[in-house]
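Example with several molecule types.
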Amino acid sequence: MSARESHCLFLGGAGHRCGVDVDDREIVRAARDGDEDAFADLVRRHSGGLHRAVARIVLDDEEAWDVVQMAFIKAWQRLSSYDPRWSFSTWLYRIGTNLAIDLVRSRASRQKAHRAGGEHQLRLVGGSEDADTRLGHGEVDGILRDLVRFLTPQQRTAFILREVEDLETAEVAEILGCSAATVRNHVFQARKTLRREIQDRFPEFVPEDQRGRK
Amino acid sequence: MSCEVYRELLPAYLDDSLDEVRRAGLRSHLRSCAECRAFAFRREPTLALSLVDRREPPGDRVEACVAAVVAGVRQERLERRLRSTRRPWLAAAAAVLLAVGSSAAWWLTRDDGAAPTPLQAEVVEVGSPDPEAVEAVPPPAEPPPRVEVDMTQEEVRVYQYAIGDDATTGAVFIVNPAMEL
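Resulting structure tokens for the full complex:
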């Protein structure tokens, strides 16, 4: 399923809207009237995608579920302030990623993440398979988790939402509360840092003629 | 579009200057074409991270999340309802009334520095039993005491009664005579 199918976020014009989005608005309206089952449907629809994005920001699956739950409860509390001209998922992602960024900034998990990164490096260096094969085996997911810790929370969030979750740049800008140009800059800087770390830590992902070049 | 055309789109993709439709087409092609994928990774190794699988979490984990959120929502609703039933103005009004009542009581009972009047208490032993009644109903071994103390200066009466035959159990009433019927 593409991001367009799974999220269909965003205000935009009528061309940007899709069935999922329109349904979301109807469900949100019911939830606003106090329908808990309708709100539970929203949780079913969006918790998976939000968890995937948040887990890649906070680098911990269980903490990511906590963040997702908090995001939904906050969304419930603020449901009366939700503007239906905007996609519910964009609004929800904004709440969720802000919580995730706050968590990354506040916790002292650098040492833990560092240990996890070291283990991955030992396992991957010397592997005989190329990056393409590893992509299919899900190992790249672990490498992504190891490397995003070198990004600032804003770069990390922008890269995950734009490049991995494939949201539109304008959507990411809305979620992060910044301009599209700022999002492009965050992604550019993130790519630069990730490229350098890949060359240092996972040289087998880099063509031989490019190894050692920064 | 041919592989060649897709490969030519790569620089625009990396600059984020590609429109969303062609961008989605390129990503989809890279997922399905191993040769173009290898070409793209040689050009930009970080593209391997961009194309990482987006797996859905297990259904039971999602349902656990739903249950936790619904429980949180119910808790929040309950707290909101409790907040709405609390009336802080009522507590404030009660506090004001208490303060006014206390002040008034103090003002009414103040002695203006006058010398205290000695208490005069009058103890009255009440009633001997009716002789006829005594015949009809045998009296208890020790008749229950009934004591009335009238503290006239303090405008207080104290009544002490025994209950039934049990002389050790009694009841004491302190009554303001002004309030007696």
